[in-house]
Amino acid sequence: MIGFLQGVLLQKSPPRLLLDVHGVGYELEAPMTTFYDLPALGETARLYTHLTVREDAHILFGFGSETERLLFRALIKVNGVGPKLALTILSGQSVAEFYRSVRTNDVKSLVRLPGVGQKTAERLIIELRDRLPEAEPGLMNAAAMEPAAGGADAADGRLASQEAVAALCALGYKPQDAQRMVKAVADENASCEDLIRAALRGAVR
Questions:
Q1: Domain boundary residue among 20, 46, 63?
Q2: Beta-ladder partners of 45
Q3: Are 44 and 86 within one domain?
Q4: DSSP letter string over 33-74?
Q5: Which domain, by its residues, includes 167?
Q6: What is this structure's pTM?
Q7: SS3 breakdown of the chain: % helix, strand, coil, rounded to 5?
Q8: What is residue 52's predicted lDDT score, i.e. its pLDDT?
Q9: What is the pLDDT of residue 27?
Q10: pLDDT band for position 154 (50/70/90)?
Q11: How would you classify residue 172: left for phi > 0, otherwise alpha for psi between -120 and 50, otherwise beta?
Q12: Dihedral sign, CA of 117, 123, 128, 130?
């Protein structure tokens, strides 16, 4: 079992990334909450991992914190929730927001996530209410959700928008919905990660 990977970040294409660990390139899938805190390309990143084995593929998931990984593992134990939906849930809500939704029986905020219907939302609340993993100190700070300052020219802005739409589609949103969500928060100075963050936050309000 691979507990974590530490290496040079070579590629970021949400929800996928490529990490060079001593000359071996590891492809991972990660929630957007992890992408927001990734360093720049060429810098060192450390990710906690979870390996899912299927008949047709071995998929490695990466997480920026142990709490995110624990929550992912708790989610995939819920009936009807597979790794892809768990990744979508973690991308659409921070750990703090998900905990709050579960503890306050907020079904409405959960059903706004793609792939989460009324019954799945109710099942998440019932099955996880009393066994949510303990959060790491400081992880529940809402300030961590604020986007970092950045800049980009118009061409970069268009590319970021296209990448954001593609990432939302990979997370389960329909193409027309993804385009609408990104267009609503369009900003030529925003990075791909910032656009996705803003689009997802708008979707769950």
A1: 63
A2: 7
A3: no
A4: HHHTT---TTSEEEEEEEEEE-SS-EEEEEESSHHHHHHHHH
A5: 147-203
A6: 0.74
A7: 45, 20, 35
A8: 92
A9: 96
A10: low
A11: left
A12: positive
C-alpha separations of 93 from 9, 16, 30 in Å: 24, 18, 13
Q: How many domains does the chain have?
A: 3
Q: 85 and 43: one domain?
A: no
The answer to whether residues 62 and 5 touch, using CB atoms and an 8 Å cutoff, is yes
Q: Residue 76: which pLDDT band, with cuts at 50, 70 and 90? A: very high
Any idea what the CATH number is for the domain that residue 135 is in? 1.10.150.20
Q: Per DSSP, what are the bridge partners of residue 5?
A: 47
Tokens matching residue 92: 């659409």
CA distance 171 to 31: 9
Residue 31 contacts residue 199 (beta carbons within 8 Å): no
Which residue, of 124, 142, 160, is where some domain finishes? 142
